[in-house]
Design goal:
By secondary structure, the chain is mostly helical. The chain is built from six helices and no strands. The chain has a domain of 54 residues: Serine Threonine Protein Phosphatase 5, Tetratricopeptide repeat, CATH 1.25.40.
Length: 103
């Protein structure tokens, strides 16, 4: 990905996910590749799959930020609230709620 060989990275990760669909890390990496290419809509299901396999507030935060960037404030809010359930002091989640007007 560092060399911006997104096609190769996406192909390799698709194979990795096919071999091991329960790999939260592979889904997360695929989301990062898709987002780096500018394909935010396709990154969302990969982030959701990663979260389904393994709860991670950093991944949930990225999902919330992605929803916000796609002008989907209700979904961003829902993810931010889930983060605050897990980490009540998470400032980044509070910032997202403030941006969607739901402090």
């Amino acid at each position: 990905m560092a060399t911006q060989r997104f096609d190769d990275a996406e192909r390799w990760l698709a194979q990795a996910i096919h071999r091991e669909p329960a790999s939260a890390k592979a889904h997360l990496l695929m989301a990062q590749v898709l987002e780096a290419r500018g394909d935010k809509e396709r990154a969302i299901p990969e982030l959701r799959a990663s979260l389904w396999l393994k709860e991670d507030t950093a991944v949930r935060l990225r999902l919330s930020q992605l929803y916000l960037s796609l002008l989907r404030p209700q979904e961003a809010e829902m993810q931010a609230r889930k983060i605050l359930e897990l980490e009540p002091g998470n400032q980044a989640a509070k910032d997202i709620l403030a941006r969607v007007g739901k402090p």
